[in-house]
Structure formats: structure tokens, C-alpha cells
Amino acid sequence: MKYLKQFGIILVLSFIGELLNHVLPLPVPSSIYGIILMFICLKTGLIPLEEVDETGRFLIEIMPLMFIPAAVGLLEAWNIIQSVWLQYLAVTAVSTVFVMAIAGRTTQYMIRRTSPQQSATELDHPEEEPAEGDCGYGIF
């Protein structure tokens, strides 16, 4: 019953995100509205983390399964994309590297911002290895 309640909370916020997508004239996907709503509810304490933690972890664990329908769709559309698959591959590679670089820089910025006692040199070149299970930055 606990998991149904947690899943219900996530579904309600997703549904509200769908409604916002239809009401607001912004080019924002409904899933982004749902994530923002979840973030706001968690940060304000409106929804305690314990109310959605276990189901959220489960959904993250099974996330790779959610990509199977997209892969099947690509296979079904092979006759359409066959002539431009190299361009798709190039765009995918470039955008993946771009997203990884931006995510890495953002993470470095956030670590530096939350750990002002450590200099940039210490973050880029730590002198000692962190203990097992410790990232070495003191924020996890």
C-alpha cells in the first residue's frame, strides 16, 4: 500500500504537469513541469522525501526499460532514417559530449560553491585519495 501511495503522489504531480503543459503557452514539456513541481514540493516540505523516496528509487532503477519503445520505434522507422543515419549519429555524438561537458562544469561549479574552504586547485588535483565511499568533497 505504501508503494501505491508513493506512486500516486508521483502520478498526481505528473498529471498536474500535463495540465500545465496544456494551459501555459510555453514550449516546455509536461515532464519538466512535473519535475519542477516535485522539486518545489520537496524543497518546501509540502511532500517529505520519505513519501516518495522508495518508489522514486525504483523508477530510476527501471529507467533503462523505458527506452525500449523508443529503440523499437527507431527500428520501425529505419526505412525513413536509413539515408541520414550518419548525420543522426554525428548529432548524437556531438550533443552527448556537449551535455556531458555542461553537466560536468555545472557539477564543478556547485561543488566549489558549496565547499568554499577548498580552492579550485584542490578540487582539480586532490593530494590524497578519498576514503572508500567518500567523494572527498564533504558534501555527500
Main features:
single chain; 140 residues; mainly alpha; 2 domains; 0% strand; transmembrane; transmembrane helix; CidA/LrgA family protein; LrgA/CidA; membrane
Brief write-up:
This protein has 7 helices and no strands. By secondary structure, the protein is an all-alpha fold. It has 2 domains: 1-70, no CATH class; 83-113.
Low-confidence stretches: none
**What structural category characterises the helix and strand content?**
mainly alpha
| CA-based gyration radius | 20 Å
Number of helices: 7
* Total count of strands: 0
Terminal-residue CA separation: 31 Å
Percent helix, as a range, is 55-70%
Arithmetic mean of pLDDT:
86
Q: Overall 3D geometry? A: extended
Order of helices and strands: HHHHHHH
- Give the DSSP E fraction (strand runs of 2 or more residues): under 5%
| Integer count of domains | 2
**Biggest β-sheet: count, sense, barrel?**
none
